[in-house]
Amino acid sequence: MRKLLLSVLVLMILGGFSAFALGGSESAAGSTTTPVGQYPVQTNATLRYWVALDANTSANFVNMGLTHYGQALQRNTGIKVDFEHPPAGASTTVILEALNLMLAAGDDMPDIIEYNWVTLVGGPGKAISDGSITKLDDLINNYAPNLKALLRSNPQFDRWVKADDGSYYNFPFIRGHEKLLYSQGLMLRKDWLDDLSLRPPETVQDWYNVLVAFKDRKNAASPFTIVWSNRNRMFMPSFGFLREMYVGAVDKRVHFGQIEPGYRQWIETMAKWYQEGLIDKDIMSITTAIQNQKMTTGTSGATVASVGSGMGVWTDTARPDYPRYEIIAVQYPVLNRGDRLVYSIPNQPYSGQSGCAITEKSKNKEIAARFLDYGFTQAGHMLYNFGIEGQSYTMVNGRAIYTPMVMNGGPNNWPLSQSLSAYMRSPGSGPFIQNEGYIEQYYALPEQSQALANFILPGAVDTLLPPIIPTQEESREYATIMQEINTYVDEKTARWLLGTEPVTDATWNDYIATVRRMNIDRAIAIQNAALDRYNRR
User: First-to-last CA distance in the chain?
Assistant: First the structure.
């Protein structure tokens, strides 16, 4: 993974994203004589581009075309774009419903649809066979030389962005460096550790000792607090498994974490800590707002949170009253000192998020391909990641540095994520390779920079399920099985953790037998079949 990511940077440095001068193209609605790979493109076509606005953009703009980024993108490519959006702030379910209605209607389709096609029932292959989106092989080969060069030089990237039959279906969003894969994890009060002459914990026993000290010597009412939906990050990797489906580090096959032996050891440990008052007694109902309050007032001293909206916000909130306030992020502990940690929870370098497909009924397929390929040129890479030179960034010793104007919120004093989103798409996603220079500057505090280094676990991404694509039939069967299993597992876990039911050989064996009767083995087999197809791409 590290070598692949570094190769992207080498390509950038050596000009691997530079354009190839090929022939011009003709389309039914728009034509151009501009050689392929050159910008701006001379065309009378106007593209329609359907994309959900992320929260940072929709906070200040009703349309992407009104942002500095959207205007610069059209200016630089020479291609006019009408951006279309589902309702701002719509849930994932509402966005999917809007997409399905659009695909079902079929008559008035935009040229480009940005969506996670991997998550669609039946995947992108079904969308292609249904005549909704276009198989992109010829378009990429003939009109997207920059994406073509990237995929040819990176076999892993190439495998990620294909359907199981080996065909291309989108212009992808890919996180281009390991630093971009880690945004959440374990955190605790460094100033408290210093007060107690304690070192950052490295083993599970160290963590127990720290939480006891926080409770007894710092009078923390809830030494460890967490939003329950984030429980997969509550020490699970330390016990040799990941929650839900993952790829085993040894056998490279799919496992369901909640039936692994480590899950029993984890729940027994967490239940013991809960009974001793080390874990927040209200763990099942903690909201982000409550977590924020507890971590900034001394009620809690450890948690799982984001480097930005957790560590960064808490530090800004607490330091005016507590100048020594300091949060540090640490890697998951090992069970025994000297053990090697195998599992962690990074983000996927490619998950299908923000994949830009070209619709089958578009009359401007070639123009759309040229437009989307711009994100994989050197100039496009800079616009998507850093914005407009001289406005949102300047070059200093060969490095793009965000300007004080944009870092300070611009003329309207917006939050940093909103200020950046007015000029670029790196705070979110889109059809481009995300550059680590974004996150290195977004995390401005020294402890935030250190968090990136502390969180990274080489090889951990290989234990995440890659972008596998179950068939339509598999998806429906899998969803039916897992809905029942997840409900049962969550209810059982809550009872064990809260102590309303003991964890014994009898209760554990009954739990495993029940999950197997619910057909977990079939669900795992479906995922393994999809993984096998992925590996054959």
Answer: 18
